[in-house]
Write a structure and sequence with these properties.
The complex is a heterodimer.
Chain A (H helix, E strand, L loop, with lengths): L7 H23 L2 H17 L10 H25 L18 H13 L2 H12 L4 H8 L3 H18 L1 H4 L2
Chain B lengths: L2 H11 L7 H14 L2 H4 L4 H19 L1 H26 L7 E7 L7 E9 L2 E9 L8 E8 L4 E7 L7 E7 L8 E8 L9 E6 L5
Helix pairs in contact in B: 1-2
Classes of the chains: A mainly alpha, B alpha+beta.
Chain lengths: 169, 208
């Protein structure tokens, strides 16, 4: 793996693949786009600097997730301390960000979405995120409703396959 | 209908027969994530540029190996002198009063170790024996900390670039009766605060 040899191009291509998922984790924890962007940048630079500690025989996503989670928590605690330095409240070092509970699940969902084809991802986005019906999605994409239905069926089945390990827990 | 088919149908429509309540609850969480803007959010363009800049800028530092090698020789000489002095002190030093069992986190699950705590007139010596912890990459290092639940105090840094189980001498200027947790984090050079991920941790057992 080029990444584990410290190749900067490999770091950039990993960002292309996992940047969105890491940003989703950071945004879940920090709930602030700029801070989440900082955490995402720090995650990939730290991962790149620590590349030789990564075991290529192990899956990459949990490794990058752990670094993203840590970077986000550190930023969250720093911001929290800064906010509290002007008040009399004590800082509780064991306190965790409220969004952390679902961060792993969101990371997994985002990673699975990235593994779908562009067409499959688009139909899922239109129906779940934009809230379109099948006929509205067909109109937006300029295809028949039959095409949308079969594409949607295939996309959701594939998503269920990709998330099987999460759903079997 | 297969489980995948049933789950796919539930993900698509929010309905489906033959699913256990737990399964439905997990699928509902996925459906909720699919409707959440956070799941679809894209990082600002600056992030990719910053990552590329940071990783490319770091490259020339790797070619300065000769400077690092010379520095390493100086450190080695200083270390040898230190070992000689330390060995001379060893015969009069008190013995281990407590031993911490150290375990790797998910980032270093193969790492294990022990840390013997030795009170001395000058502070607490921590004899850290570790194995299975991978070498820190160039530009990174491991840092050991003692923690009392409120504050963390650094007790030394190391890199594990040897190829055998290692004994590392750490020192604490704070009382280890109060600082009961020993943590090891992975740090990056140029970031002088505890920001790196936790790779090993252990708690001090009760002792007098």
């Amino acid at each position: 793996m080029r990444f584990s040899k410290g190749d900067p191009d490999a770091a950039a291509s990993l960002y292309e693949e996992y940047g969105g998922a890491v940003f989703t984790v950071a945004l879940s924890i920090l709930n602030d786009r700029e801070l989440a962007a900082d955490a995402t940048q720090q995650t990939f630079v730290k991962a790149w600097k620590s590349a030789r500690t990564y075991d290529p025989d192990r899956p990459f996503p949990p490794w990058i997730y752990a670094i993203a989670r840590r970077a986000s928590i550190d930023i969250w605690r720093t911001e929290r301390s800064r906010e509290r330095s002007t008040s009399s409240d004590d800082v509780d070092v064991a306190e965790t960000p409220p969004g952390i509970e679902h961060a792993w699940q969101r990371f997994e969902v985002r990673t699975a979405l990235n593994d779908l084809s562009e067409e499959e991802r688009e139909v899922i986005r239109l129906t779940h995120y934009d809230g379109y019906t099948h006929s509205q999605a067909a109109e937006v994409l300029g295809v028949s409703i039959g095409t949308i239905k079969s594409r949607s069926h295939r996309a959701h089945r594939r998503l269920a396959e990709l998330l099987a390990h999460l759903l079997d827990q | 209908m297969s489980t995948t088919e049933t789950r796919g149908e539930y993900l698509e429509n929010g309905t489906g027969s033959g699913l256990e309540p737990d399964d439905r609850a997990r699928l509902d969480l996925v459906r909720s994530a699919l409707a959440d803007p956070i799941t679809w959010a894209q990082p600002p363009d600056r992030v990719g540029d910053e990552i590329r800049s940071a990783t490319v800028i770091e490259q020339p530092a790797r070619s300065r190996r000769q400077i690092w090698a010379a520095a390493a020789v100086l450190v080695l000489i200083a270390g040898v002198v230190g070992v000689i002095q330390f060995t001379a002190e060893e015969s009069t030093r008190p013995s281990v009063v407590a031993t911490i069992s150290m375990a790797g986190t998910e980032l270093a699950s193969g790492a294990t170790g022990t840390a013997g705590l030795v009170p001395t007139p000058n502070g607490w010596a921590i004899d850290f024996e570790v194995s299975g912890l991978p070498p820190a990459a160039a530009g990174t290092y491991y840092q050991a900390w003692v923690d009392n639940g409120v504050d963390s105090v650094s007790v030394g840094s190391f890199h594990m670039r040897g190829d055998r189980p290692t004994s590392i001498g750490l020192w604490s200027g704070v009382d280890l009766h109060d600082y009961r947790t020993l943590n090891v984090t992975l740090e990056s050079e140029g970031e002088g605060h505890q920001s790196g991920p936790l790779v090993m941790t252990g708690t001090t057992p009760e002792f007098d």
